[in-house]
Amino acid sequence: MLQTLIIKDAAHFERLATGWDALLDSSARPHIHHTHEWQLQWWKQFGVGRDLRIGVVEKSGCPVGIVPLFLETRRGGPLGLIRWRTGAFLGLNLVDSADLVSNGSHEASAASVDLLMNMEGWHELDLRHFVTGSKTPEIIQERVAPLGLGLTLERIDGSPFLPLSGSFDAYLTTLGTNWRQDSARQQRRLQKDVGAVELDVRHQVTRHDLQMLRDVAQRRRDAGDERRCPLLEPARMAFIQSLCEPLNDRGWWQLALLKVGGAIAAYHLGFQMKGTFFCWSVAHDPEFSKYSPGKILMRLHIEHCFQAGMQEFDFMAGEEGYKSHWTDVRRDNQALRIKRKNWRLKLADLWAKARSHS
Q: Given 108, 249, 286, 346, which residue has the most CB atoms within 10 angstroms?
């Protein structure tokens, strides 16, 4: 028989680590953003002013489903006078994939959804980053009508990824000839003009490493490149620094550096889990821009992942143009919003519509 409980304090959250990651290990495609380490550090960094509400479904005393939720007060209407309570997944704004954590059985998934839908305290659920293949939105949609809830589901972006099947040489033949040849030609030019070109792949990351990467990203920003980089945002930098030790202990980091004469020309900062590399942050030093260091690093790093026997190179959420040169396969990310009948939400929506037409 299944039992449920709601966790509201960080200490209990920390003690959930063993059961949480055991569930994740049993899933078809574990994602770094679903891990206990990622979610816990996010809560420690961004939980101020929010209320923890982690739902747990247990069987024989062991968790079989986890609902990683928090509640916060949102405001709308004139002068923000209308307030309501919204439930959202832990990791908000710092995850590319969010979902329930379960043992994969329909029983556990359905019980987790029921716990979510019947949880007290929320007027709406704003659930973002369900990826293609998740069964959760389907189960939620089955529950909405009988409960008299409103629901909207929309695609928000895509997550390109490269299946690493076959050989690297065979994969190269699928790329455009000019693109493939230019990468190799630029590498030869770089080596001739500047110095030895080296791919350095590390599985341990220190705060000093992160500072070096931030310096590279800052030089790119100073050169006029306005692309967003999480390492240049103080709160996100502090968050990723807090993950150094926990992820080092688990062997989940993967940092790929393109070095030229010992200097860092470009980097891929990311994570590896069960055969997948998650590419979280990329940048290059503008000093080497004319040699296309990002293109060189991507080719060398993908080759490394093939040779290491990995199964997937995940470019993560966002459909930036450079990703399409390397893969044409993607997963969709969806956002699901559920509303209980409530005068606050109705008034806030009417006010927002009026403002949009004014």
A: 108
